[in-house]
User: Which sequence fits this backbone?
């Protein structure tokens, strides 16, 4: 009988975290231990200038692509090849863990551990982010209730919770936070979609964190002037709540590769990358840093390059695009019930989605790119050869890997190809999609046309009105487009490589602390709901509390 991921993880004897830290020359005195196998890292002594490897994927499908699994296995394979390497990954959110997606610690023989701890409360970072976010909300309501000296007319900051609770999407704030005695409409977002999460990910130091928190827009006056968290004198207290959470977490893979796991914004509604602080630590302590950007390359990789890389002066030396035969077939409108059967027509149609992502990475961003074919047992030699030849025609190499099944042994060829590409890359400035001096409309247009392949952009009245209000330097911010992850377009039903479509912007929101503007395209939920049968119903724990089933 095949073992589940958690059974595999619990069967491996982990190394003390001090031993893992020593591989990166991190001293015991710079660790804050959370048990035997987890630690916060206070600081590192810069000894490396590692090469950054960015792992992304085709647009997600119901069959899954295994991007996190490949990221972990690739790092293990690089380590098995004799090079020093560190992972930099996002923390899981409890919403997907108990909902439908499951955990975010990889799978099979390529996992980070302790798996249950990481997928659940971990070191409490997301709880701290939730508390800091909601502290600001309580300060706003208290200020309004105490006379509203700053003259709030509207409140822009929302509460958050790290679970899927659709009932909290829209709420009414009563007398305690009513403006001029009138109850106001408000709502919750999931913690991963909160601005405090985005701020944590992009801050470069505790002082930068404090400044960014102070720049969060709390609301607006009747004249349209911005009221910030600093105006409310809230950012110092928020920073106090986040001072420990700001330190990156160190764990390990099942094969003992060091992994910094820190923060976790969603890529369809935020920028979808782990923290700058964790990535920086990995680059300073290892020859290679393997990091992951959420969802498809049109979301995660684009936002990594145009937002995170720009803010932190990061320069990827190689991009890895993960794809599976099954997912490619689904992108080509194959029957979901027959994905294990040969379907060359659907596979070729789905390959058009992969081709667009390859073009974006190689021609637009001008970065070395490798395709990782995450193999399934149902894949045929002919299907794999078809993908390899197709990618060769696109100017990149596609390398099959069996990381889920074999761990590092199944990814040695992929690691060799990726390291060669990274080592041969002549570092240069990232070719961004747009200039920060471009207008907001031009930034959005360039993303839509150049990255998605759209014919143009349309704006609904609410978005047009919002455009008029974005002044005072905010128009120089990068743009973070919130759209479906399932399509290059803003319509989840348009699979493969859609053509002859336009992007519709419904609203624009300034994120003063994160330092970007969110452009909402399509129907995006900032507070997801649970499925009819959530994953939580499949979970159990024994009487001793030391064995969990159904977590993944």
Assistant:
């Amino acid at each position: 009988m095949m073992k589940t991921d958690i059974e595999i993880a619990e069967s491996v004897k982990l190394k003390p975290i001090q031993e893992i830290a020593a591989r990166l020359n991190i001293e015991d005195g710079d660790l804050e231990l959370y048990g035997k196998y987890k630690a916060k890292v206070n600081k590192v002594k810069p000894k490396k200038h590692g090469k950054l490897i960015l792992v992304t994927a085709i647009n997600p499908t119901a069959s899954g692509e295994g991007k996190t699994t490949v990221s972990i296995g690739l790092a293990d394979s690089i380590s098995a090849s004799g090079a020093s390497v560190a992972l930099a990954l996002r923390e899981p959110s409890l919403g997907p863990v108990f909902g439908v997606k499951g955990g975010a610690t990889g799978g099979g023989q390529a996992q980070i551990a302790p798996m249950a701890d990481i997928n659940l409360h971990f070191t409490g970072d997301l709880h701290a982010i939730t508390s800091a976010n909601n502290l600001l909300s309580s300060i706003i309501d208290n200020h309004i209730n105490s006379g509203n000296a700053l003259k709030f007319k509207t409140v822009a900051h929302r509460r958050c919770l790290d679970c899927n609770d659709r009932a909290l999407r829209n709420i009414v704030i009563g007398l305690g936070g009513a403006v001029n005695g009138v109850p106001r409409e408000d709502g919750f977002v999931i913690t991963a979609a909160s601005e405090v999460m985005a701020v944590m990910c992009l801050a470069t130091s505790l002082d930068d964190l404090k400044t960014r928190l102070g720049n969060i827009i709390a609301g607006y006056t009747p004249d349209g002037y911005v009221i910030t968290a600093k105006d409310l004198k809230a950012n110092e207290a928020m920073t106090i709540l986040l001072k420990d959470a700001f330190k990156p977490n160190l764990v390990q893979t099942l094969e003992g590769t060091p992994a910094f796991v820190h923060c976790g914004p969603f890529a369809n509604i935020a920028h979808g990358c782990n923290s700058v602080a964790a990535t920086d630590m990995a680059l300073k302590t290892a020859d290679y840093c393997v990091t992951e950007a959420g969802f498809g390359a049109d979301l995660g990789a684009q936002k990594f390059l145009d937002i995170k890389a720009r803010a932190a002066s990061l320069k990827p030396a190689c991009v890895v695009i993960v794809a599976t035969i099954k997912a490619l077939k689904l992108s080509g409108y194959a029957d979901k019930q027959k994905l294990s059967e040969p379907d060359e027509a659907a596979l070729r149609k789905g390959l058009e989605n992969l081709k667009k992502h390859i073009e974006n990475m190689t021609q637009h961003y001008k970065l070395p790119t490798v395709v990782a074919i995450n193999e399934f047992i149902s894949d045929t030699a002919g299907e794999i050869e078809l993908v390899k030849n197709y990618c060769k025609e696109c100017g990149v190499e596609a390398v099959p890997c069996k990381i889920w099944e074999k761990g590092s042994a199944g990814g040695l060829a992929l690691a060799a190809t990726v390291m060669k590409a990274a080592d041969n890359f002549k570092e240069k400035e990232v070719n961004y999609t747009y200039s920060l001096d471009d207008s907001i409309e031009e930034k959005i247009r360039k993303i839509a046309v150049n990255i998605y392949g759209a014919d143009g952009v349309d704006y609904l009245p609410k978005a047009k009105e919002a455009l008029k209000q974005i002044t005072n330097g905010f128009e120089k911010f990068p743009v973070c487009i919130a759209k479906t992850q399932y399509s290059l377009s803003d319509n989840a039903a348009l699979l493969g490589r859609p053509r002859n479509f336009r992007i519709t912007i419904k609203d624009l929101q300034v994120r003063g602390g994160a330092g970007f503007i969110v452009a909402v395209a399509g129907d995006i939920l900032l507070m997801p709901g649970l499925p009819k049968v959530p994953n939580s119903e499949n979970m159990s724990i024994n009487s001793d509390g030391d064995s969990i089933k159904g977590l993944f």
Summary: The first strand starts at residue 31 and ends at 33. Residues 116 and 551 are 7 Å apart (CA to CA).
